[in-house]
## 1
Amino acid sequence: MAARTEDRPGLRVMTFNLRYASETGPHPWSERRPVMRRLLHRTAPHLLGTQEGLYGQLCDIADDLGPRYAWVGMGRQGGSRDEFTALFYDTARLFPEEYDHFWLSDTPSLIGSATWGNTVVRMATWVRFADRRTGRPFHALNTHLDHLSQHARERSADLITTRLRPDPAVPRVVTGDFNVAAHRNPVYATMLTKGSLTDTWDTAAERGPQYGTFHGYRPPVPDGDRIDWILASPQVRAHRSEINTFAENGTYPSDHLPVQALLEL
């Protein structure tokens, strides 16, 4: 279990596939939510990229985090419909200067579009933040790539890296569930080479034990595949990275494990 890092300097970033809220058992949201609440209170991320959250579920998380936090997001089908790639942020630390969404398709401005053979609509949400502590800006982008189509994942990686290029002087932080293992898929290489990004798990000065980040509510697998990543531009220093295995009485907050990084922009 990861230790609370609230008093350590740096920007605390987390990526977390929430597993959409459902009361159909096993593992209903009503049972998972208290565990999620305690995990988030323990870790106190400044920036939290989420995947699969439904609108009501995200409102629950916002209530549990408290008034110091705000979030940006839109449903994959527009408005509050379907799953979100929402970004939560600590308003005492981060100020959003602008934000937008785009869809992972040949028509990225068309809400709900999917043109690459994926049957599930996929999207990205981004925010340009100002760090209140340092005064420096940075871009945060959060996404969830397709779970079945490799073609769609590769095209999505190309689009995301293209969108990241216009202002390379501004640091970038990318969070997401990429649905492929780090180091073992062309999507990973595309994000790092074409996107001029680094994997904060690899570059961190310290890191915790590696586990497979998708565990399906079963005990975490040591040295398993990392399909949830925190990437950053090369000028960002990663002090520590860890995969958080927090659970209570055998109940996990999600079927994924959150990945955390302590970054210096």
## 2
Amino acid sequence: AGAVAAATGLTPAAVTALIDRLEARGLVTRTRSLEDRRKVVIEATDLTRELSERYYGAIAREGEKVMAAFSAAELATVLRFIDAALELQSEQLARLKAEPASAG
């Protein structure tokens, strides 16, 4: 939950509640890590994989065809742009969070 919370900006409690709901619907399983018993490993179930294939399989295969049409250099440029755009958004979000709220 902690790693997902850090990656998504959700609180650990919200992530735990989300995982609880997914597990109740049979979409994920929880097991203890073999390396570190304090950690819990969340894994997709066969049902999740089947649903993912049903709804996203075709678009994933078509997306692979689109990406194959670009050279490695072109993809590196796209990745550099996406990284720069994400960094800009992160910086601006941090700036907005640091500003005091105005009375409107």
